[in-house]
Amino acid sequence: MKRRLFWKILIGFWLTFFCIVLGTWLLFMVLRSGPSDYARGMARMSVAAASAVVRDGGRQAYDAEIGSWSPEQRRQIELSPAAAPSDDARPVLAQSIARSPDGEVWRITFYRQPFTMRGIPREVLLLGGAGGLLFSAILAWYLTQPVRRMRSGFRRLAQGDFTTRLGPSMGRRRDEIADLAHDFDQMAAQLSELVAARDRLLADVSHELRTPLARLNLAIGLTRQDPAKLDASLDRIGKEAAKLDEMVGELLTLSKLESGMGQSEDYFDFAEIVRGVVQDAGYEASAKQVDVSLDTGVKGCEWLAKGNGKLVSRAVENIVRNAVRYSPQGARVDITLRHNGDFYRLTIADKGPGVPSEEIGLLFKPFGHSADGFGFGLGLAIAQRAIAVNGGAIVARNRETGGLEMTVTVPAAPLDLV
Fold it and tell me: For the whole prediction, is pTM greater than 0.90?
């Protein structure tokens, strides 16, 4: 694996660290207003020592003594005849006159060394070079190691391994990279759920389609065995074909809703839709002697909503028909419509058997099945997605007096935009 990011961070931070250390030292040296007391004291001591050597032994003794000094000191001190003019422009830190045993007068001068890059101490270079390299290497490894783990995780996820998780590999990190790893884990978990839901949906669709297809094949087989049953078989074939067509239509509707194709910018009268659904459901309810009542509260209220009215109508119809279907004979389905602030609240309550609390969430899953094997089909799944596309929501709960209560909320259209 190419570690380009590692080397970019390493070299970049190393150069930055080195330049900061070197620049700080250079700035300190440049901004110094003058020599320190320590430098002046060392200069006076050096000149005094050199003068004593000249008085005792002359020029030869001076050269022998200076030879044992450091190169830096030798560059700063100078011995010249006192009568000769000095053309050295360097600042003088200390100066003395000494007479050698042969009678010659000498001038000993200790100059302040001008600043040059060659004068940078070895310690500064070592700190800027080795220290910066070590710091940059640790920082580069710390930043790029989790990136490499995430790259490996994305590769495994792309290959279909939805069990890949990066959170545990981050250790005790509490930074943005750790947050990114946890977001990756959430994404992987959601993808796993989506793929599992897709597989379940395909299996459920195959199972649901197999039943009417089996009946079609049975009707065709009976017709071949006994041509006298042609009319009955054709009726059966027509019914099963209609069921298949209805199921395929529901699957297409569900697919469009999940892809967001059901969104619309139209306006519709929510109360008018509910009244139409209740009126149509009344015919089906009358056969079971079930009463469907509608209470819209205060009259004259505006019920305008923005979205796809056809999808909302179909969603409400699915809920009301289910309430009628599972209500016992002679019972009543209570439907109330209220305007609560920015939302319309529709409640459909029946007297049916209800649903176990732990299985209420299965109502809105395609082809969901309860523990006793009872299936919920596609109706409520389509209803929930249709309402969600229009910005609303559906909530189901069991009533304390028995039965199921569905609450549908739909956003009201702002009157100033209508």
Answer: no
